[in-house]
TrEMBL record:
InterPro entries: Redoxin (IPR013740), Thioredoxin-like_sf (IPR036249), Thioredoxin_CS (IPR017937), Thioredoxin_domain (IPR013766), Thioredoxin_ResA/DsbE_sf (IPR050553). It comes from Parabacteroides acidifaciens. GO terms for cellular component: cell envelope. One of its GO terms (molecular function) is oxidoreductase activity. This is TlpA family protein disulfide reductase.
C-alpha cells in the first residue's frame, strides 16, 4: 500500500512540474514583479526600481512573431496614445533576444512611437518566464502583478485596457 501511495505521489508531482513547464510561467498574478535591469547596447541601464509607484506594463515580443505584430499594432493604435502622457504609467516593450540596433531597424519599418528595449540574452525575460511570446504583465503601483497574458487575442487586449484604467484610479 505504501509503495502505491509513494508512486502515486511522485506521478502527481511529475505531472504538476510538467504542466508548470508547459505554461512557461515564472511570475504569476499576485506575485511581486521581479527586479531587473535593462541594459542598452551603449551601456545605459533602466532598472526596474526606477518604476516604483507607477502602473507598469511589461511586454515581451520578438520581431519575427506574428501574434506579437498584431499586439504591437494595437498598442500603437489604442494603448500608447491613451496612456503615454500619464505620469503614473510606464510601458516597457522588450524585444526578447534583440539588440538596440535590431530594434531600431524594426521600429523604422513599423513606425512605432513608443520605445523598444533590448533583452539580447533573455536576462529580463528569464526573470518572468521561460517560454511563449508575446507576454504581457501589468503591475500595480505597489509592484504586484495584477494581470498577465500569453499570446494575443482582441478580447485579452480589451481586458488589459480595462485593468490599466482600474489600476490608474
Amino acid at each position: 500500500m505504501k509503495k502505491y501511495l509513494f508512486l502515486s505521489f511522485f506521478a502527481l508531482l511529475a505531472f504538476v512540474l510538467k504542466a508548470q513547464d508547459e505554461s512557461g510561467d515564472i511570475v504569476k498574478v499576485g506575485e511581486q514583479m521581479p527586479a531587473f535591469t535593462i541594459v542598452n547596447d551603449n551601456g545605459t541601464e533602466t532598472p526596474s526600481s526606477s518604476l516604483k509607484g507607477k502602473v507598469v506594463l511589461v511586454n515581451f515580443f520578438a520581431t519575427w512573431c506574428p501574434p506579437c505584430q498584431k499586439e504591437l499594432a494595437e498598442v500603437q493604435k489604442t494603448l500608447w496614445p491613451k496612456y503615454k502622457d500619464n505620469k503614473d504609467f510606464a510601458m516597457l516593450v522588450i524585444g526578447r533576444e534583440h539588440s538596440d540596433a535590431e530594434l531600431q531597424k524594426y521600429n523604422e519599418k513599423k513606425g512605432f512611437t513608443f520605445p523598444l528595449y533590448p533583452d539580447k540574452n533573455r536576462a529580463v525575460y528569464g526573470a518572468f518566464a521561460n517560454s511563449l511570446i508575446p507576454r504581457s504583465y501589468l503591475v500595480d503601483k505597489t509592484g504586484k502583478v495584477i494581470y498577465a497574458t500569453k499570446g494575443y487575442t482582441d478580447e485579452e487586449f480589451a481586458e488589459l485596457m480595462k485593468k490599466i484604467e482600474t489600476a490608474l484610479k
